[in-house]
Specification:
123 residues, two-stranded antiparallel sheet, globular
Amino acid sequence: TAAYGVRVPQVDADGNDLGGIRSVHQQVPIGTYTGWNLGRADRFEDGFCSLQGSFIPFAQTRAEREAAGDPRLSLEERYPTKEAYVAAVRKAADQLVGKRLLLKPDAEALVAEAERGGVRAAP
């Protein structure tokens, strides 16, 4: 019998895939985005269930992160101010526009959204 291995993409320190074109939301994350979803005790235990993917949010604060033992930086550690978040979004959007992977009007819309609402609350 042949041995089959599961191939998985390399990930960054947050668990987000490194390969492909990284969108603004991947470059300025609010959590870990996966293309897979582990089963749970009452369903598909030790296996994969639907391939819709998962989102695991970052802790809001450093204290919350440390209490949970989460090695990923919290939102407050990443984006200490609304301006820091907007600057990160602007930088990521500008880089994608420069590489011709994002249209300027779309980049402007993403930056305007960050200016209006600050750090996103959900994927």
